[in-house]
Design goal:
alpha+beta; BirA Bifunctional Protein, domain 2; seven-stranded mixed beta sheet; 8 helices; 38% helix; 26% strand; globular
Length: 237
């Protein structure tokens, strides 16, 4: 896998960028790496069926798509695709590195796919693979980042009793620095940087195996949380 130039698709509103990516892949309309980005989502999703609150203009809602025609999902031989959960770890590392580099914030990863700043959730990652006949046809990496503070996000988290209030880049970055980004610039810059870094992390995973990614992930992992049991089984192989 090389670091690609991405086709960029922009939408005013979608149900979910991951779901739109699946539809485009099914129709044969995505044949090379692609970045989908929406101003809002009506059915944004996280893991375990949770909603990702996506009010217009408040956050970065995007999916990075890597078509992988004919690749076997084994991870045991050169040129094969590792198991999907390892891509979630790689995407987490990519997001933490990118946000930290662009903003200077100290990012932590709560296993497996949550991005935290000072104990509050800033974003999340949902990696999905399209598999048929033991072949991975594509990887879809959904990324949601709270950029601007918004009552719909805060109220939604309170309503679902998620335990703590969400964070946003606007909350966490000093105002004199945050104001240097104009309008949509921060979301556009962040989306493109994340897409490129996710591609680099995936290439590293494929070329060098899971241990490198796990070691990198450990540098960002919140110390009070460990990998879920299903990941422990994969990482012990």
């Amino acid at each position: 896998m090389t670091i690609p130039d991405f086709e960029l698709l922009l939408y005013d509103e979608l149900d979910s960028t991951n779901e739109e990516a699946k539809r485009l892949l099914a129709d044969g309309r995505i044949t090379r790496p692609c970045l989908l980005r929406a101003e809002s989502q009506t059915a944004g999703k996280g893991t375990h069926g949770r909603r990702w609150f996506s009010p217009p203009g408040a956050g970065l809602y995007c999916s990075v798509v890597h078509p992988l025609p004919g690749e076997t999902l084994t991870g045991q031989a050169q040129g094969k695709i590792p198991l999907t959960p390892l891509f979630t770890l790689a995407a987490g590392v990519a997001c933490a590195e990118t946000i930290q580099e662009l903003t200077g914030l100290g990012i932590q990863l709560k296993p497996i796919n949550d991005l935290y700043v000072d104990g509050r959730k800033l974003g999340g990652i949902l990696t999905e693979s399209l598999i048929s006949e033991n072949h991975c046809r594509a990887l879809i990496t959904g990324i949601g980042i709270n950029v601007f503070a918004h009552t719909a996000i805060t109220d939604g988290c309170k309503l679902e009793d998620r335990g703590n209030l969400p964070a946003s880049l606007q909350d966490c970055i000093p105002s004199h620095l945050f104001s240097q980004w104009h309008g949509d610039a921060i979301r556009q810059e962040l989306a493109l940087a994340l897409a490129r870094q996710v591609g680099r992390s995936y290439r590293m995973l494929i070329e060098h195996g899971g241990k490198v990614i796990v070691d990198q992930y450990a540098q960002y992992k919140t110390p009070e949380f460990d990998f879920p049991a299903e990941y422990q089984a994969i990482l012990s192989r």
